[in-house]
């Protein structure tokens, strides 16, 4: 290679590296940039980044509106139908299922939508809230949860219903105790006094209280227009469920592009034995403390100090938060019996009954998703990487998937989008995903039956 050309290549490289660092640099850090200048630069960068990201989403998914006329979430929001992940080439799903992982990898046939979904701004990472949540919290609490450097990416129709209902283990007789409202500091007493005890009420107050976080804080190293009091646990785990907010997994290497994680529901969290999708924590208390001190600051202890992290003074605060979380129940599943299964004697939904047979038989789902809550409380490595070549994903991070905890499937129709990073938009997508990843070779009719069973859970 002539020297000149090499220099250009190297130059390009260095430039790229520089802009990478430059983008993520906060105001004041090794530069004379003011907060206003920083904001303007980040806003400009956002336009381009979001354009690129939305184009990538369009490449991965069919985002059109195809709301079910019959299937709804617990409070009536229609479920979006159909497989939304786009096929790569002129192969059908059935043809793809006939191919071996090696063939699929060699020909780059693995659908992009089955690969890790990147954070909408992988360089910056952090928490990103949906427009729905931002507007509701602004209206009710006067807190602004929007960021100037990134906006939320998944259309509202693929998000959980809002505000989601909340069911308590101790008071199933009451049904939805949120009474269809967003639970916040301004109404929690009115809603919960006399229903739960004083400790649980205090735990709930703490779950609703905003605490400083990496992007939402009062320093100039923040991503909100105005100084922010922070985020509350229930901004993400709204009404004990999920608002579809995303965050980046705290990485041990600070400036590594972030991996995206979708907020899991806290419904039924007490039946779990491992906490966090990698199953590395053993109690709700441990996880709650981790959120406040570590996850909130992308694992950056220095930043946590600088931005006034709320370090729970007494272990008591975390214990009280856990007291309330342990009350959060799954939504009712009227068709299931005490063992968590459909009783053929009492059910006339033939498709769901056939789906149940498949779930426990040919489709092998029950080897990991065991009733009554449809989790074995173990981690499994689905080895998704065997289907594609590294570096081919649209994500800069291109993370491996690794061992992940089996999430419970009780109430699953209420929790789109699916998988740890929310890369699958519909339950049909999850059926195609497992059909391929587990090599099940299900027929079209069998896939339909399996779906009919999943929505009864
Ligand atoms: C981004 C918004 C967000 C906020 C704010 C948040 N969480 Fe989480 N929470 C998550 C995500 C994402 C995970 C999954 C982490 C993982 O996959 O490792 C999680 C996991 C959990 C879990 C484990 C659930 C499970 O199924 O394993 C608990 C318990 C929990 N959070 C409690 C809390 C508490 C308590 C607070 C407030 C101190 C809080 N969270 C604040 C997003 C959030
Ligand atoms: C080897 C164990 C295993 C088997 C078998 C299995 N799953 Fe899963 N399932 C998992 C794990 C682990 C995850 C989480 C993966 C992730 O987030 O990347 C998961 C996630 C899911 C999700 C998304 C849950 C959520 O909250 O986002 C659905 C739906 C699902 N599985 C359905 C099925 C169906 C249907 C079958 C049978 C066709 C099946 N699974 C078979 C382990 C398994």
TrEMBL record:
Its EC number is 1.11.1.5. Residues 350-457 form the Cytochrome c domain. The keyword Heme applies. Keywords: Heme, Iron, Metal-binding, Oxidoreductase, Peroxidase. GO terms for molecular function: cytochrome-c peroxidase activity. Residues 393-415 are annotated as: Disordered. It comes from the Bacteria. This is Cytochrome c peroxidase. It comes from Methylocaldum szegediense.
